[in-house]
Amino acid sequence: MAVWGERLAGVRGVLLDISGVLFDSCEGGGVPIPGSVEAVARLKQSQLKVRFCTNESQKSRGKLVGLLQRLGFDISEGEVTSPAPAACQILKERGLRPHLLVHDDILSEFDKIDTSNPNCVLIADAGDAFSYKNMNKAFQVLMELENPVLISLGKGRYYKETLGLMLDVGAYMKALEYACGVEAEVVGKPSPEFFKNALQVLGVEAHQAIMIGDDIVGDVGGAQRCGMRALQVRTGKFRPSDEHHPEVKADGYVDNLAEAVDLLLQQVDK
Amino acid sequence: MAARRALKAVLVDLNGTLHIEDAAVPGAQEALKRLRGSSVIVRFVTNTTKESKQDLLERLKKLEFDISEDEIFTSLTAARSLVEQKQVRPMLLVDDRALPDFKGIQTNDPNAVVIGLAPEHFHYQILNQAFRLLLDGAPLIAIHKARYYKRKDGLALGPGPFVTALEYATDTKAIVVGKPEKTFFLEALRGTGCEPEEAVMIGDDCRDDVGGAQNAGMLGVLVKTGKYRAADEEKINPPPYLTCESFPHAVDHILQHLL
């Protein structure tokens, strides 16, 4: 067992990233990461509180949970914190009518949002919908606004699909920021509000919680800045250079979620 | 700043300086002849991401300018020469019309990315391919980083936003090869045997032409044609060496004061 395992003492709640930790997505579905289905089950049987905290913005929460259940995971919609519902709340509070640059699979999350005569742009992981034409349309909407507002569901650089690494919404967010001279408002990890909201629902304090993710900046760095501990798994988008990241150092690096859960449960049993 | 020496080379911008779209600046052909009558070397330098040298040359010939292909140095030329120097095989995200300027360059099994203005290539799958090459350590060479440009149907995204997207995703910086980069001006002088202190640049873009050239050690002359707008000369510090009405006036100044 890793020496740093002692740093897990006092953990009462666990936030789990989904993509790259539970499964790797691919065209039309996904593949569970070996050991992760059982690891989630063991975690939920323990006395630790568990919540899923994802930046998934290509599919609705319902579609994501449905897929995970088909892959064998014990998970329900109410256990997932994801950026689209959080964004909808912000849109309503501020009277914002978004032009949506998003994937068709997440449109249902915005069913109750007025999108006529847009006064902001909302960008999510649109996948193939990130065409020049669609990017240009979002750009033109922003350029015509007196006070351009750009809302981005997460700002990840890339994520892993079975075919390889794919550009994430952050890259396209940066493109629009650069083109229009604006700064996006990020809803999702690593924004502190997003983590705090997940902790609140979980009912634990930041210092009692640990985040497990495959993104050294978005998951690990973001959680640590909120006062949580964080582990990086060597699955999903993990790259060996992450362990020597110039700014972020995880509280521990584990081969996969199964190893993380082993270590956590050993601490709990002490 | 190094001591100024006798003038040996004149760099001239094309669109906005010698001609505006398909019309020559009045008196420009004749002024170019007078300049050539002196002993200076003349080079034509331009930021283009879609017009090959051949396209540029045809337009200039139509406007009756006496210019040969080897006198033209463009941002595409600069990208090509960087590709050659680095001995890399680029994935070319450039407009099809620019491809002739990369003739003979190996592009199979790419280990570099060259990016210009290429809306037809700026979509998810192609950008993912470029992104994966960059993560594997391929250099990113940008023709320029313009934010947007004007089309008949309104503003449209330039290459800059897509370069920025790739830079962010891979935590790297692109090598930008066009004006106003210092290396662009130095490369344009290569083969002339001249030092920057022996050269002057004439152009209508205060930042990219004049500011860029002056940063490289040349004199910069701003002409009030093309994209020039009132008070542009106040945009850079130090200010342009000279601001004058048009290319023929710039030539007169050079012939009278700099030779």
TrEMBL record, chain A:
Classification via SUPFAM superfamilies: HAD-like
Native organism: Heterocephalus glaber
TM regions (residue ranges): none
Main location (coarse class): cytoplasm
Protein name as it appears in the record: Phospholysine phosphohistidine inorganic pyrophosphate phosphatase
Reaction catalyzed: diphosphate + H2O = 2 phosphate + H(+)
Required co-factors: Mg(2+)
Keywords, sorted A to Z: Cytoplasm, Hydrolase, Magnesium, Metal-binding, Nucleus
Function: Phosphatase that hydrolyzes imidodiphosphate, 3-phosphohistidine and 6-phospholysine. Has broad substrate specificity and can also hydrolyze inorganic diphosphate, but with lower efficiency.
From TrEMBL, chain B:
InterPro entries listed in its UniProt record: HAD-like_sf, HAD-SF_hydro_IIA, HAD_sf, LHPP/HDHD2
SUPFAM superfamilies per UniProt: HAD-like (SSF56784)
Gene3D superfamilies per UniProt: HAD superfamily/HAD-like (3.40.50.1000)
A GO cellular component entry from the record: cytoplasm
Swiss-Prot/TrEMBL keywords: Magnesium, Metal-binding
UniProt-recorded Gene Ontology molecular function terms: metal ion binding; phosphatase activity
Cofactor: Mg(2+)
Taxonomic superkingdom: Eukaryota
Pfam families in UniProt: Hydrolase_6 (PF13344), Hydrolase_like (PF13242)
NCBIfam families in the record: HAD-SF-IIA (TIGR01460), HAD-SF-IIA-hyp3 (TIGR01458)
Similarity section: Belongs to the HAD-like hydrolase superfamily.
Name this polypeptide is given: Haloacid dehalogenase-like hydrolase domain-containing protein 2
Gene that produces this protein: Hdhd2
